[in-house]
Design a protein that fits this description.
Blueprint: H1 2-49, H2 53-63, H3 66-81, H4 87-98, H5 106-118, H6 124-171
Helix pairs in contact: 1-3, 1-6, 2-3, 3-4, 4-5, 5-6
Length: about 170
């Protein structure tokens, strides 16, 4: 009886381990879509609202959930405190600190770093161009992430079951 219970535990552990990998793939897609929504919000507000950047960050934090919303909330708080650092430096510090909890790849973070370097540092037309290019880049990255998730999700599910069954067979 204990062997059967142990076998079930091993099988469930491997299946749940691979399910966490599948979840990480989905989280990357979600985070990229959240960043895309934030960039679109910035675009529309820069074109029509002309709000100051701390207010834009608050607005983004209010409309975007999860880790990306937390980033915007932290950025708004730092900007309202009137930190002596320039926006690109603040952006990079927050991005480095908070990206530890994200599921983004280095190329995703590179796009966000470049956004932070150009945001608030030039005229309105240059910022609009930067946001448009960032939107296109994030759309491409999100599409690639979605395709990768679709391709690997089923594979990871099967690997979870197969590796669990293999371990159980080797153990018994």
């Amino acid at each position: 009886m204990l062997k059967v219970l142990g076998a079930v535990c091993v099988l469930l552990a491997t299946v749940s381990g691979f399910a966490q990998l599948r979840n990480a793939l989905q989280q990357r897609v979600t985070e990229l879509r959240d960043w895309l929504a934030a960039v679109r919000l910035l675009q529309s507000e820069m074109n029509y609202g002309l709000l100051p950047l701390p207010r834009l960050c608050e607005l983004a934090a209010g409309q975007i959930d999860g880790a990306v919303g937390q980033f915007w909330q932290s950025l708004a708080a730092v900007l309202q405190q009137g930190e002596p650092l320039a926006l690109p430096e603040i952006w990079q510090q927050l991005l480095t600190a908070q990206s530890q909890n994200w599921h983004l790849l280095p190329e995703d973070l590179q796009a966000l770093t470049e956004l932070g370097q150009g945001l608030g540092s030039s005229g309105l037309s240059n910022q609009q161009r930067l946001l448009a290019l960032t939107e296109q880049r994030l759309q491409r990255l999100a599409a690639e992430a979605e395709e990768r998730r679709g391709r690997l999700a089923r594979l990871l599910g099967g690997l979870g079951w197969c590796s669990g069954l293999l371990l159980v067979c080797l153990w018994l």
